[in-house]
Fold this sequence. Notes:
- By secondary structure, this protein is α+β, with helices and mostly antiparallel strands.
- 29% of the residues lie in helices and 35% in strands.
- The protein is built from 5 helices and 8 strands.
- The chain has helices at residues 58-71, 112-121, 136-148, 153-160, 164-167, and strands spanning 14-27, 30-42, 47-55, 74-75, 88-92, 95-101, 108-109, 126-132.
- It has a 4-stranded antiparallel β-sheet. It has a 4-stranded mixed β-sheet with strand order 5-6-8-7.
- The protein is elongated and about 70 Å long.
Amino acid sequence: MKRNIIDPKSLELNDKVVAIKRVSKTVKGGRTMRFSALVVVGDGNGHVGVGLGKAAEVPEAIRKGKEAATKNLVYIPMDKNCSVPHDFTGKFGSSTVLLKRAPEGTGVIAGGPARSVIELAGIKNIRTKSLGSNNKVNCVLATLEGLKSMKTPEQYAALRGKTVDELFK
């Protein structure tokens, strides 16, 4: 997996625990219980990351999830009204999340797992719809995949060797 190189020390990160699950493993002596924590971190200015931590204690699982999320920070492009540059569908596993542009004043219209990623990324106006599986882990990762795949008009113009004005003619 290719990682973006973003220095987490230079950012002021907020974190949000999306889900805590009790998971068990059956071994010879019985079942061992552990906790899995899904954590999203972001600075509210276009940087967001997701991490999964697993440990015997809940606080330790959250700490591990937060560390994993800061290692996986990505930059999300936004337009002038704090929305996404274009409509897109993010897919991960059997979860699909539809991300749609919204005009100023719309706010964040999103379900629980997708909302946490969008708010911590700093997006203020967006409409989303979760399609397919509603598994929290897959929904969060599908939202992140969709946001990572977005490009600004300037990036598309550079890929095609044109100016932004030529694209919109």
